[in-house]
Amino acid sequence: MKKTASTKKTASAKKAVPAKKAAPAKKAPAAKKITVAPKKATARIKGAAPAKTVVHPPSGESRTALVRRARRINRELAEVYPYAHPELDFTNPFQLVVATVLSAQTTDLRVNQTTPALFAKYPTPEDLAAANPEEVEEILRPCGFFRAKTKSVIGLSRALVADFGGEVPGRLEDLVKLPGVGRKTAFVVLGNAFGRPGITVDTHFQRLVRRWQWTAETDPDKIEAAVGALFPKSDWTDLSHHVIWHGRRICHARKPACGACPIAPLCPAYGEGETDPEKAKKLLKYEKGGFPGQRLNPPQAYLDAGGEPAPPLRAG
Question: Where is the HhH-GPD domain (predicted)?
Fold first, then answer.
């Protein structure tokens, strides 16, 4: 059969139409590498650097799981800081309440450098109540806000003499009536001078419990209530010491030393700070002869960072 002209034309037209190229397949985005905290950060300080991404926070953590994780963190910190204690030097409740009032907006080290002269000249509430404010101001000048602090310590001394016979009261409701004494100061005194449990919600405590997702509260009183509900009352005072010591030494505000942190596997905020072990070691805060306030051997993380066991700093 002969092909007609129209058939030939149609065939040639078909040949002239180029075939459409298939659209290139879109490349799938590279899977994001998720890294978990090292199983034991302190054990990895001398090893290879871990990867540097943030651990995802607990998703849908139940109340029971939160309580278990919070208590495990406290147990881990108790092993790292077995001798955690108030880092203010004191020998009696009066010295502790005065030192705690003076510690506002300054360091415990600065207070400890200042109070020996203050207590040598004014050893009792009666002495400080009758003091010349200008002379007290001169002693307290290194602490900062020395005029306001002078007014507070003289005022609380006068209140102790007038209302409590020169003795520091052992009840929260009485302590908070003293000039310059709030709940935080009161719980420091109750827990460490009278052995009555209390949670000290200072700036370190607030920062860490939010990083650990124990609570999202920002008001100190609400933080105190929320965290207190996670632990037996008997644990409150030691818990405060453990958290505050950790905040001062490892879990800093601006750049936490995540790579040297003993509770890294339990921390939802792991990776906010330096995760490289060698670099993290350099962020640990300690003083010559040991890290601040430590009376006996420091944990291994601090020895690795170049610290040395410290001699006893004080009794009590």
Answer: 102-249
Q: What are the Cα distances from residue 310, in Å, to 72, 83, 295, 315?
A: 28, 12, 6, 14
Q: Write the pLDDT tens digit of every residue in 136-156.
A: 999 999 998 999 999 999 999
Rounded CA separation 115/98 (Å): 9
C-alpha distances out from residue 38 to 96, 116, 266, 271, 300, Å: 40, 44, 10, 11, 16
Q: Which of 229, 236, 198 is CA-nearest to residue 215?
A: 229
Residue 156's Cα: distance from chain center in Å? Answer: 29
Q: Is 143 flagged in the annotation as binding?
A: no
- Say how far apart CA 38 and CA 205 lie, in whole Å: 24
267 marked as binding residue: yes
Domains of the chain: 58-86+197-316 (1.10.1670.10), 88-196 (1.10.340.30)
H-type alpha helices, 180-269: 183-193, 203-211, 220-228, 236-249
Say if CB 198 and CB 187 are below 8 A apart: yes
Cα 5 to chain centroid distance, Å, stands at: 91
What residues act catalytically? 184, 202
Q: Count the alpha carbons within 13 Å of 40 in the hemisphere toward its beta carbon.
A: 8
pLDDT per position as a tens digit, 53-81: 344 446 688 999 999 999 999 999 999 99
> Which of 193-197, 279-283, 300-304 has the least mean pLDDT?
300-304
Is residue 161 pLDDT above 90, yes or no? yes
| 3 state SS of 156 | helix
Contact 290, 298 (CB under 8 A): yes
| Residues 6+ away with beta carbon under 8 Å from 278 | 45, 49, 259
Nearest to 239 by CA among 69, 35, 74: 74
Helix (H) or strand (E) holding 292: none
Q: How many CA atoms lie within 13 A of 314 on its CB side?
A: 14
